[in-house]
Amino acid sequence: MPTRRPRGHLRNKSTAQVRRLLLEYGFHLVKPGPLERWEKEEAGRRRVVIVPAGRTAIAPKTLASILEQAGISKDEARRFWAE
Amino acid sequence: MAGKRLEFRVHALIARDGSQYSALCLEYNVATCARTPEKALTALMDATINYLEAFLDTGQAPPQRPASEELLLEFLGLDSGREEIPAGQVAESLRSVIMAESTLTAPLVYSAKDRAFTARGPHVLPRAERASYPVLVVHHAYS
Question: What ipTM was reported for this prediction?
Answer without folding.
Answer: 0.86
